[in-house]
Amino acid sequence: MATAAAAGSKRGGARGRKALVAVLDNEANISAGKAAAQAADLSASSAQKKAKRAPARTKAAVAASAVVDDVAELQGMLERLRLEKEKAEEMVRERDEVIRKKEEEIETKEKEQGRLQAELRKVQRAKEFKPTVSLPLVKSLLEKDQDADDKGKKKKGKGKAGPERKKPCPAYVLWLKDQWTEVKEENPEADFKEVSSTLGTKWKALSAEEKQPYEERYRQEKEAYLQVVGQEKREAEAMKLLEEQQMQWTAKELLDQYLKFRQEAEEEGDSKKGKRKNSKKDKDPSKPKQPMSAYFVYSQERRAALVAEKKNVPEIGKITGEEWKNMTEAQKAPYEKVARKQKEEYQKQMEVYKQKKIEEAASLEKEEEEHKKIMKQEALQLLKKKEKADNIIKKTKENRQKKKQENADPNRPKRPASSFLLFSKEARKQLLEERPGINNSSLNALISVKWKELSGEERQAWNAKAAPAMAAYKKEMEEYTKAQSSSD
């Protein structure tokens, strides 16, 4: 029974578990259905909510897209502004650079202008240089003589010399002058050609004794002429030599004065350098003053009264001018009388002054003539010294040459031409053919250039041409040296 009860209890327990499982499954299915229903409801509601929210999301997306576009546009504008700013800054830098260069140019020009102004002041100052050294007297005397000769030539005709330098006439011309009148009287209708022909025939017919007086006269005149011309040439040469010596002294003195002047000018201030002195021609204090006109006599008389009235110079001139215009001839007469008297006195003084100047000029000319004679004598003495020195130098050279010739041994072998001399001889012929008018210095220079341009092989060829003669010369020199040593 117990076993049956146990078996029954086991069967009852199994049925209970099954029922419990079924209940649990049913509840699970119910809860799953509910969950599915709820999920469906949720999905439907979410779909509805999504459907409701879709327009709002589209508007937000459009707005966001617009904002993005605006931001992108703003960024583009900012980029463009940045580029424009950089470009503007670059332009500003370029402008500053141009301005800086312009300022440098202006500064350089100002410096250059200052330098030029300083140079200009120096030049202006240099114009004020007035040397106290005078022109060499020899040169001035020579120029005066030349001017006198030129004037004499213009008066007497071009090419004609003065009476002291007149060329002597030949013997035939002297005889012709004596016979011309006589032949012309014998044949009055004969022309110049016929008379000349007749006289020529007569001259040929004269004997040597008849021609002798005219030839002797011609010889004497020729000797006198040659003596005068020789003396003039010698004096001219001597004066030229003295002039050169005096010019050297003058140049040295002038240079010393100029250097001293430059030193004094540099020591002065810039303000003084810019000033220029008005150099007026010095007036002769002994020359009479010009007389005043009638108007100036009246003006001089009225000046004191007008100055007392405190009138200035322009006002005084204007007042006196108007008063003089309004004056009658009778009122002007006293002043014109004074002016005439002053003019007469001035003319007398000028005559005395001119006469004095003429006497001074004559005295100066006389002094110059005497000084000229002294200078000529000094010049001749200087020329004699120079000729003596030249003769000494000439004799010394001749003695040296003579000794050299005496010491020269005719048996000594002559040195042969070198390779350069051989090349030079051939190149000279070629260059003279190519350039017929070339001078000697240019020719030698071209030969030297061509020799330097030769290659080593070409120069070796010329050395080979000169080698046999040089070898023979050395051999001859050895024999000559041995012979000289054995003779000694």
From TrEMBL:
Keywords assigned: Coiled coil, DNA-binding, Nucleus
UniProt-annotated stretches for the region Disordered: 140-167, 265-294, 385-421
One Gene Ontology term, aspect cellular component: nucleus
UniProt DNA-binding residue ranges: 165-233, 288-354, 413-481
SMART domains given in the database record: HMG
PROSITE patterns for the chain: HMG_BOX_2
Domain HMG box, first and last residues per copy: 165-233, 288-354, 413-481
Coiled-coil regions listed: 71-126
InterPro entries linked to this entry: HMG_box_dom, HMG_box_dom_sf, HMGB6/HMGB13
GO MF annotations, alphabetized: DNA binding
Pfam family, one: HMG_box
Keyword Hydrolase (UniProt): no
Basic and acidic residues bias spans: 141-152, 387-412
Domain of life of the organism encoding this protein: Eukaryota
Protein name per Swiss-Prot or TrEMBL: HMG box domain-containing protein
